[in-house]
Amino acid sequence: MADSPIENIRHSFAHVLAAAVKKLYPKVELGIGPVIENGFYYDFGKLKITEADLPKIEEEMRNIVKQNLAFKKELWPAPKASLHYKKLKQPYKLDLIQELARPTRLDSARQARTALRRPPASRILTKVGMVHMGDVFLDLCRGGHVKNTSELPLDAFKLTSVAGAYWRGDEKNPMLTRVYGAAFATKQELDDYLWRQEEAEKRDHRKLGRDLGLFVFSELIGPGLPVYTPKGTAVLQKIKDYSRELRKEIGYQEVYTPQINKAELFKISGHYDKYKESMFHVRSNYTEEEYFLKPMNCPQHTQLYASELRSYKDLPLRFADFANLYRDEKPGELNGLSRLRAFSQDDGHSFCTEDQIEDEFNRVLGAVEKAMKTYAMKYWIRLSLRDEKNKKKYLGDDVTWGKSQTTLRNLLKKKGVEYKEAQGEAAFYGPKMDLMAKDSLGREWQLSTIQFDLNMPGRFGLEYVDEQGKKKTPVMIHAAIVGSPERFLGVLIEHYAGAFPFWLAPEQIWILPVSDKFAGYAQEVQQKLLAANKDFRVRVNVENETLGKRIREGETMKIPYLLVVGEKEMSNNEISVRERGKGNLGVMKLEAFVQKTHIRV
């Protein structure tokens, strides 16, 4: 399939970047320069630069583009290309050519027989793409460019950052310098993108989480293992409590399962074979049995189901679980709350009959839709299917997968839900409906999921007795409402830019006495608020600072309401109210304020 025009623009800018860096730093070693979302990058060896050097490189890129250089692709025999880069002392290009020239694995006996009839050289020697950019630059490349640099929009690109990257993404290989750039068809698109990037940096949950005092990381505790402060715990608990409320509304009962389990459990579930690399191994001082920290709740829930003889009258049987999970993520992939080693999920599993699938699906989908409305997040639906070219990644046979994927697809259609199919995104035990939420900056996050599993119940020998007294295997539906509450906390910090809605705010109300003289009245207001609603998170701020400074501090900490009390307020049994984002609302009775805030608390 041909590249799109914008991909050609971005790919061409990557070559221009390489040419500019090569001119400014002649001894540089060239890596690769692919197109990525919103732009491009290029990897370089023997290049030590910082972001302060980017304007100079960008200016050289502009000079190159203005030369109106034509792109022209040629096919060179691999030995010729190797000799070219050997003379230029470009080891990474040589590595790429060796990879491209390596004989490919034959996928079938017929292909093997066909290959054997060809001359030996045609099976080993390949031709590689070499792209000229005028007579200024020559690069190893598959193609996909504009015809001439004059087509490149100079007002719609910008070099954005410098980072380190291992060659071929392997930590055993040398660390290269990666230069990122953004490129669009128009200046307006670039400006919009740069604004979003700047805004995203301001909203970075790692920074805001620290500034708002929500969570900390400690090297002594370990990477990917956050510790939540009282404020952060308050927000996290509200997220979990809301998911609990939604679960209860659709008939789920909460359970609690252990963090460590025998390996045998995961061998039966399939996690041992398909997921072992991401699991923490646990060693006992007293037994040789193999244990693991659990990465998911589903295997344990099968044992709750199996603990009793089940009848069709018992189904659906629904379990919800917020116990901690653990996954051995690679250190380089850990990222604040977005990727953790310890977290929970608002997880649930329904064991049901086949004729109950539709109702169970609709129940969970309704809860998910209600949650997204509450959190003010738009979304779209992804139907995540098995990779038909790599079936070994998954449990079960073709018949089982065909049935489960067709069932899920038909349910979405019957419900009138628009969706996009994604091959290879299924869980290893079944297809799933993934909710792709969009935050206030338009960034997408995979949150909720509903997964069909026709494999695990059979592997564990789960059964129920139907109306005719026959034993049958139940269907297992895995579902999460927001996914991991911890990860979702990070998403919400950025979605709201730290300004949580009233019901989620770690501190909802500050009471600010004008001076110490009115501290007693401030305490009285606090007690009345708590009497009106014990769940209010309210603090009396009597710090030895001016009122103005305490108000600014409250605004910086994004407190929803600041209540100022002084002589006038105390005399009339009132409060002066300042609302975040709206400023001074004037004086009102405490009862009126309580009514105003009588929303989800």
Walk me through the structure.
It catalyses: tRNA(Thr) + L-threonine + ATP = L-threonyl-tRNA(Thr) + AMP + diphosphate + H(+). Its cofactor is Zn(2+). With 601 residues, this protein is α+β, with helices and mostly antiparallel strands. It has three domains: 5-202, Threonyl-tRNA Synthetase, Chain A, domain 2 (2-Layer Sandwich), CATH 3.30.980; 215-259 and 295-495, BirA Bifunctional Protein, domain 2, CATH 3.30.930.10; 509-596, 3-Layer(aba) Sandwich (Rossmann fold). The chain has 20 helices and 30 strands. Strands 11-15-18-25-22-21-19-20 form an eight-stranded mixed β-sheet, sandwiched between helices. Strands 1, 2, 3, 7 and 8 form a five-stranded antiparallel β-sheet that branches. A five-stranded mixed β-sheet has the order 27-26-28-29-30, sandwiched between helices. Strand 21 (432-438) and strand 22 (444-453) form a beta hairpin. The radius of gyration is 30 Å and the shape is globular. Mean pLDDT is 92; it is low at 104-125.
Present the secondary structure layout.
Layout: H1 5-24, E1 29-30, E2 35-36, E3 39-45, H2 54-65, E4 71-77, H3 78-87, H4 91-101, H5 109-116, H6 120-124, E5 127-133, E6 137-140, E7 157-166, E8 175-183, H7 187-203, H8 205-211, E9 215-216, E10 227-228, H9 230-249, E11 253-255, E12 260-262, H10 263-269, H11 271-274, E13 281-282, E14 291-293, H12 298-306, E15 317-321, E16 325-326, E17 342-343, E18 347-352, H13 357-374, E19 378-385, H14 398-415, E20 419-423, E21 432-438, E22 444-453, H15 456-459, E23 464-465, E24 471-472, E25 475-480, H16 485-495, E26 509-513, H17 519-532, E27 538-540, H18 547-556, E28 561-565, H19 567-572, E29 574-579, E30 583-589, H20 590-596
Parallel strand pairs: 11-15, 19-20, 26-27, 26-28
Antiparallel strand pairs: 1-3, 2-3, 3-8, 4-5, 5-6, 7-8, 9-10, 12-14, 13-14, 15-18, 16-17, 18-25, 19-21, 21-22, 22-25, 23-24, 28-29, 29-30
Helix pairs in contact: 1-2, 3-4, 8-16, 9-13, 9-16
